[in-house]
Amino acid sequence: MDMLKALFKQPYWVIALVLGAALVALPYVTFENGHLTTRPPTSRLPAVVGIALLVLSCAAFAYTILTKRNADAALSDGLDLKRVKEGEGALWTKVNGCEIRVVNGRIEEYRQEAGTAFVLPCNEYFDDRCVGDTRSALGAYANRIFEGQAAALNSVIKGECRKKLGKGVEQQKTEDERSESFGAGKCLLIQRPLGSVVPIALVSTTTQRASEGLAARISYLFDGMRELFTRLADARINEVVMPILGSGHGQIDPPLAFVGLLLAIAEAAHYGQGGQRLKRVTIVVFKQNADTPPQVDTVIVRRALALIGSQD
To answer: What span, in angstroms and rounded, lies between the C-alpha atoms of 143 and 220?
Structure first.
């Protein structure tokens, strides 16, 4: 009885295959004294029905394979998924010699390596609210890597802003506060923050205005990536790690922000900066822990990588 229950849970072509084989054999075998023995058939009708079921099973199996193949082809229509490689928990492709990798995890837990810059999002004011907010990628990173030094890091950022970005423009940040804005889509590279051998690059991906709140735009990512690649080329840094920019307080839907970021990176990598080009960009898609799904589904990641990889 258990075997029958298990059989009827199988695809219909498997059921037809088993029943067809049984019916073909039925007229020619009998069970006597605990043994199977052959016998002359008394009727060939079960065998004919069995053969028909076997033909039906083969046809159904072929149809299933063909339908799946067509579905896979439709899924990847116009995209060369072979350009996307996979291994060691990462998906990657190449654009103009730059390897663009995607992994799941938390930016503050990603391994630190000298010479690899960490790119982090901030607002147009480059202020302490970003550094102190542990719900943001910059805040989570700063409070892990520069634990207890948030005020000192913010002081360094402010000093570097005035030195490298020039004088900002005062804006009405909130109803009760005015502050100096350095603009959206700007990048600030700090090579040795508080003595660390791991550089950080801050990209302003959000604006804030009175009565408007925080807001991000995909266009800021394109501006920010162009400026980032220029500053990295000047500093001769060729590897970076970053979260999905714009998907946090910027409130861009994570899949949309991810695709926008990939396109911005691909554009910057495609046109490069002279002989000094990035060798590797790693995007860390936020994943709370091993039991939670990542912010962006793997299907979207793979197809987006195939999209930019086709430009190479």
So the answer is: 26
